[in-house]
Amino acid sequence: MDEPKASTGTADFSRFVAVGTDLTAGYTDGALTLEGQVNSFPAILASRFNTVGGGDFIQPYLNVGNGIGFSSQNTLVGQLQLNSIMNCLGEKDLIATYSVPNTNNLQWLGNNIIYNNYGIPGAKSFNLDSQTFGKSAPIGNSYYHRFASDTGAISGLTSTVLGDAFKVNPTFFSLWIGVNDVLFYAQSGGNESDLSINEITPDSVFNTSIDRIVNSLTSNGAKGIILNIPDVENIPFFNTIPYNGLILTKAQADTLNATSPSGVSFHAGANAFVVNFNGTVRQLVEGELVLLSTSLDSLRCNGLGTPVNPLQTRMILDQQEVSNIHASTVSFNAKIRAVALAKNLAFTDANAFFKTLSSGVVFNGVKYSTNYINGGAFALDGIHLNSKGYAFIANECINSINAQFKSTIMVVDVNNYSGIKFP
Amino acid sequence: MWYLLVPFVTLAGGFQINTQGQKAIGMGGSITGLAIDGSVVFFNPAGMSFLDSNYVNAGFSLIIPQTTFLGGYNSSEKMSSQLYSPYYVYGAFKLKGKLSAGISINNPFGLGTKWDDNWSGRYISQQARLTALFIQPSLSYKINNHLSFGGGPAIVLGAANFRKAIPYANTDGTEAGVELKGNATGIGFNAGIFLSYSKISIGLDYRSKVKLDLKNGDATFTNVPPSLISINTIPSSTKFNSSINLPSVFSLGIGYKVTDKLLMNVDLNFTGWSVYDSLNFEFPDYPALNNSNARKYKSSYAARIGAQYKSTDKLTIRLGIAYDQTPVKDGYVSPELPDANKFVLAGGLTYRIKRHLYLEGSVMLENVSERKEISNVNTNFNGTYKSYLYIFGLGLQYNF
Questions:
Q1: C or N terminus of chain A, fewer CB within 10 Å?
Q2: How many CB atoms within 10 Å of residue A138?
């Protein structure tokens, strides 16, 4: 049997740069770690580009260890690890808990290396050409600050992500941006604390940012691939706890009904959780989403989600918020598709892929899905991917690239990348 | 000019093994229309009535499979080198009057595949082994000089062993695995008719399907993350039940005595593989682990042509060829048995050591067509398989 020959087609993979967010950096299990970087989706792509003339793929590596991430309370944490614990019902359970972060990782790496991976955790579309983004937090971004070529020491303005990426003089690029432009809003339960960082990026800002980024990356004739944004429904952080996850016995339902406010009633079986919606206590309706950051033990044992202890609006996405997220996702994805067509870029429909994954994908005998933990592809934070998930994305990209540029690059064996580790 | 006759001989598809006698192998498995040694008890018990003396035959084969797999992800992967050795013992004896009796002990079904533990199909199969020992006592009754019928029950003792990886990783990255091991029993029968007229002989034989019941097998899980055992997702060991249907085989053979020295035979086999619809495992104590794997085999044909030529008083040589249709449909090609249509080329000889005692040998090459699986229904494990089987056999014959 003859092994197929890899060929470049009409693209040139010799100098590859990746631009994007957490998902490009290799962020996984609630933190950026060295292992996550090594298996970032562009690093997996680069390993295949090596078969068709691709060059080195240099990443701003962290030290070995637990890496560094930010919890939902914005405190520094190390990567999540699964622990076998006893839950409040006295059952053995698996829970992800943060490990100790390695804060040495935040030091500036100097400016004598040109990197190939400019995936910046937390980046939104309009951050990529921001001249303050390289400052230290909270003005700038801690992850870009680590390896920005200029942190603003001299002029006060910093290098930009795009400017640094362009130093690679890329012949090929990947761009996956826009996820955080809606995700921050979704993750915060609809920006209940009114922080500007959690606002959904207005369409006009997103559109001009994408145009500027793509024009810049293609200005020397580089070809590339662009990915779109997944719907929140297919992300475990938003779909693991069902809106009607309040399971009651007849007796429990009767007890609650005796004191329930009007419009709220319970029956034996599955009931919609109760939320305190700006002073009005009501039950969730289908299509509203409970965030995975909500305490499972409180839901199970402390009456959270009942009239006694209603959910708070920051723990859920109500119908209006879900609709806001949808509208922006649809709009951003339309823009991304249009830019891909206009610039003859390869296009990966990541949104469609996650939708397919949500109903299960069998790969070499292993069934993957978007389920939290047992789906096998998402990280323990329920938002990012693990290395197997990133390998899936790399394969989607390779297929798109092969289709667009008539190259014959082999996809990778997803099963050979690390996934969930059980204690 | 006998070699022009050498023809399409076949080895059976699926997990059928066609090494049931050195003469049969040497003629590509084409022997149902002939009564020339003790193997007739297995190929067509009615043929015992037309043997020219009592026969005892015993022997074995070495099967060396070589399979290469090329998936879409890696460079090609080779099956681990291995050796299988099915054997046979036959005795066929004239009783008083028109009755003959015989016994057949052999391994007409089995499979063995072994891949590297870390290969790309490890979650489907690392090792698969199935053996089936058939014990078949038989009688044959000669109605007249042209017609006989015969048959007997077949007692089947099977053993199965499957091993694969499970996609649960420990904190050190090592993965869990499972081994299923068990013994099975089953019962069937073999019945045939033999006709002989002038230079022509015809055999019709039906070997029934056999349901092998595997009860109380041992499932051993290895290297399972302790947390998964503690939340009762996976046990460290448990019992399992399964069953495997071995297919019926209907054969028609026509033998022709071209000259005193040259004998030819054409065989057609119809194997009822459609009984192998799915492979199911049931775990009575862990029903969540129960699984059903569609196999959806289709019944298949094989055509075989062989010839033997008595070149000297002491030496008889044989040649045969066969074409054997695979029972495995597209969508169900799996690495524990990467089957495809086969072309078979075989040769053999019998050498008289002394009066009544003969040494027999055979060589067979099975060229299994390149098989490309595009979309496996069960596993989505896709790629191209190419196999060769090299088979060397040795046996002894005593007739009196």
A1: N
A2: 9
Question: Counting one residue from A and one from B, how many pairs have CB atoms under 8 Å apart?
Answer: 80
C-alpha B384/C-alpha B373 separation (Å) is 6
Residues B20, B108: Cα–Cα separation, whole Å: 7
pLDDT band of residue A311 (cuts 50, 70, 90) is very high
Residues found in chain A: 423
Interface test with A, best of B227, B336, B370, B382 (most A CBs within 10 A): B227
Residue B196 tokens, joined: 């002989």
Name the pTM for this structure.
Answer: 0.92
pLDDT one-digit tens code per residue, B308-328 = 999 999 999 999 999 999 999
Torsion of CA B328, B333, B336, B337, to 10 degrees: 40
**Contact check, Cβ <8 Å, A1/B225:** no
Sign of the C-alpha dihedral computed for residues B243, B244, B248 and B253 taken in this order: negative
Contacts of A84 in chain B (CB under 8 A): 226-227, 230-231
What is the sign of the dihedral through the CA atoms of A27, A30, A36 and A39?
negative
Say how many Å lie between the first and final Cα of chain B, rounded.
32
Nearest to B173 among A363, A412, A421 (CB): A421
DSSP per residue, A113-153: ---SEEE-TT--GGGTT-SSTTSPTTTS-HHHHHH-S--ST
Strand segments (E) across A188-287: 223-227, 246-248, 269-271, 274-277, 280-283
Strands (DSSP E) found in B298-339: 300-310, 315-324
